[in-house]
Design brief:
Pathway: Cofactor biosynthesis; phylloquinone biosynthesis. By secondary structure, this protein is of the alpha/beta class. It is built from nine helices and seven strands, in the order ααβαβαββαβααααββ. Helices cover about 45% and strands about 20% of the residues. It has a seven-stranded mixed sheet, with helices on both faces. The chain binds S-adenosylmethionine. The site of S-adenosylmethionine has 21 residues, from α1 and α3. S-adenosylmethionine binds next to α1 and α3.
């Protein structure tokens, strides 16, 4: 899929994206996102980045973690997702310390060695150039800083993999159908088929210049968090 089509897709699903995520994961995506924030090493007062922030879940959790002394930038190229993220942040009191920025994960508009920690949730599978996206993330992190990258994963257990494929086809796509978004959600299964496995992600992260990389399978291996550290 081209970057333009990815952007159009995420702009179109923006109004129902949160609701569908929550019902299809039975609320579990919030727990996985909290794990990613913890593994990013973000701490009070830090300056953090959430790449492919979408409607802002991870950026909002990062903001809770860094507090008002810290700051979070949520970046995404889909304006409709950012508008929802902004509304969600504005509905909070006190206002979290977040800037929402339209921009490309493949050409991050930040200087090198800039952020204390970063997250990326369900973004790596959607960028058109994974190695470049990892190189960009590596560039903008400070030496010693970590990033946690959460996404779907193909479980090594054949039975769980079959269950995952059935779930995506028989539950996720029909659920999206009620919002007239069948095609938009049918893309998840093929994108997962193409997505590098945990060990391949570790290799790509090392090639992108990260000093350390570990992939943690979670949710029975149907999801995973790649934790990377800049040397
Ligand atoms: C599946 S959503 C994930 C949103 C959010 N991180 C979450 O976990 O709910 C993927 C997001 O990646 C964004 N995206 C994909 N490629 C991008 C790129 N090259 N630059 C910026 N954003 C991109 C899409 O616009 C979309 O909002």
């Amino acid at each position: 899929m081209t970057a333009d089509r990815v952007r159009t897709l995420f702009n179109r699903i923006a109004p129902v994206y949160d609701q569908l995520n929550t019902s299809l994961s039975l609320g579990q995506h919030r727990v996985w996102k909290q794990m990613a924030v913890k593994w990013s090493g973000a701490a009070t007062g830090d300056h953090c980045l959430d790449v492919c922030c979408g409607s802002g879940d991870l950026a909002l959790l990062l903001a809770d973690c860094v507090g008002l002394q810290g700051h979070v930038i949520g970046i995404d190229f889909a304006a409709a997702q950012l508008a929802i993220a902004q509304q969600r942040a504005q509905a909070r009191y006190p206002q979290p310390s977040i800037t929402w920025q339209e921009g490309d994960a493949l050409a991050l508009p930040f200087p090198a060695n800039h952020f204390d920690a970063a997250t990326m949730g369900y973004g790596l599978r959607n960028v058109t150039d994974i190695p470049r996206s990892l190189r960009e993330l590596q560039r903008v992190l400070k030496p010693g800083a970590k990033a946690a990258i959460l996404d779907f994963h193909r479980p090594s257990n054949a039975m769980i993999r079959t269950l995952q494929q059935w779930y995506l086809e028989a539950i996720v796509v029909p659920a999206a159908q009620q919002f007239d978004l069948t095609d938009e959600y049918a893309y998840i299964a093929p994108s997962l088929d193409r997505f590098p496995t945990g060990s391949e992600q570790v290799m790509l992260a090392r090639q992108a210049g990260f000093a350390a990389a570990t992939h943690y399978p979670i949710a029975g291996g149907t999801m995973g968090v790649l934790v990377v550290m800049k040397g």
